[in-house]
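## retry 2 of 3
previous attempt timed out at serialization; input unchanged, resubmitting
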Amino acid sequence: MSDRGASAPSLPDDWPAHPDPILALNRMGSFDWDLDAGLFHMDAQAHEVFDLRPEEYDGRPESLSVRVPPAEGSRLDALVAQAMKDGSETYGTYFRLRRRDGTLRWTHTQGYIRRDETGRPRRIIGIVRDATQEMADSAANREQAALDEARRRLTNVVQLATAALAHARTVDDVIEVLRDTHGLTRLGATSLVMGLVEAGRIRLVADGPENSFVPGTRVTRIDEPYPMSEAVRTLSPRFIESPEEFAERYPGLWKNITHLNITAAAYLPLIAQARPIGAIGLLYSDRQGFSAEDRNVLVALGSGIAQSLQRAMLYEQEMDLAEGLQQAMLPRTIPSVPGCDVAVRYRAASIGGTLGRDIGGDWYDLIPLPGGRVGAVIGDVQGHDTHAAAVMGQLRIVLRAYAAEGHPPATVMARASVFLHELDTDRFATCLYAEADLGTGVVQVVRAGHIDPLLRFGDGTCRLVRVEGGLPLGLSAEFGRLAYPVATLELDPGNTLLLCTDGLVEQPGADLDEGMEVLTALISSGPQDVRDLADRLIDVADERRGDDDVALLLLRRHGAGAPKTFGRVQQHVSPGDPEGLTEARHMVRAAVRSWGAKGRSDEIELVADELMTNALMHTEGSAIVTLRLLTGTDRRLRVEVEDSSSALPRRREAGDDGVSGRGLLLVDTLADGWGVEARGGGKVVWAEFVVAHAAG
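## retry succeeded, writing output
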């Protein structure tokens, strides 16, 4: 400490006359530093703080260097000099003293600078005290605060991950939450892997970042020497606390991930209902080891992930069951009706945005009727669950039965309403039934609380057809109002009747009338072909991601110049029934000869046989073989083979020695045209041949 000279002013007015007893009670010593005389006076308590006996100290500041280490003395001198230079009245700091026994102890000093009328420092009065315990307590508090922060951070990791996983409905959703960058950030990890247990093996379903995948680990056995396998096998976590431990315990895995700079890892079993469903590995590059609390938090995190996965698996199982039920309730195929083109589509609701599809009660149906008539049905049962689908299936069946019995449209609708009312359910349904005579174009329409149909004309224009309606099915019987007015409209050749459920019309923030205007404009500008138009409308519904399912049926009456059915034969062929296949071949041969197409008999029979064989070999279920003779600008014989599979046929190159793969190549070579058409839940593969003569 620097030396100063000259006389000193008096003590401050508020300084006690005898401060020693007061300070001693607080284990503080006082000093009076006369800057002019260069003397540093200390009381007895101050001598004790500095561990100096009175006879060992001569009152000079530099003599304190025996207790103050040089670095600490330099720092104190600089602090005091700066305080005097910048006009401060006080200063204070902590510094270390080396006591008589050589130990270092923390000390705190605080000084009060007295100046003369010119502002020149003349005297410093202050205190010193032992601060060793205080600094120890402060360090302990800082350590505890750091532990509390680490605990809070780990707990926050679990909370954030749990909150993100709460919105996941499918296994893919869970994987996406964990795999993306934000997921890794939430988990506090640099990299992760996750696998699911399937048939005694672990299938890797998530890894991140992109360069973290280890070749050969996509599918592993549970008994292999991997940490994830051990976690699943033992139902207990595996904590790896250093790179050396990782390399020693799992050398085969370690050599493939050294580029990730991993310093620690935690592999957690994912356990649901006391059985392992998978495991997750969290790899870190910024930590060494895991405390007991770290391990508890990570085990809790694994439990939360396991619960989300189990919930997602159950959801997917329920959805598979629900979708299977709904597919069983909807028509498996839509019959081909002479005189019109038909397209049907169904889109499941997207509840909660993009998180998944939900089952609903919307349905469509097409019912061939005697005398060249056809019935078209569109309906919507209240609700989005398996019960709605079950009610829908029963309604579809009874509507078809009542129509097939020959009841007029109003009676069909009234009987369906009574049926639903008497059914053990609290659901109601909206429905529209249109019965069209394709010979005359007369269409009779009844409406039970459903939205009106639309009519598209041959020139592309479209308008909404207002139809007076009755109450929804189930409610009309309850209120005793079973009358359903019948509206009549004309479907001219080339015109299209469009029936849909309100999921196609409703838009967020718009009322039903506005939605109808948008739909009408969309139909007017859409493709002419009913199948292409149906695809376009469903694409729009998908883009909109509405929270209601959509059913759609389009029926276009053939135009005046369109081909007309001249003859038609049909045969049903069951799988594993060689006699049925033989009868179908005889039917094709007889029809070709009777229709005067003997010149192309071999080609037609060969193509028909190929299409029938493909349907029976590559699909599950029966095939329906239909032959039609069409007349128009030319005479054509059309072969159709319908099955219940929606999978499209693929033409393959068989190779020189191949025994299969030539079927569609043969069809393409022999037929004048061929193609595939969707029919409800299945398809029709057709081929056409231009024939020289036709007979009735």
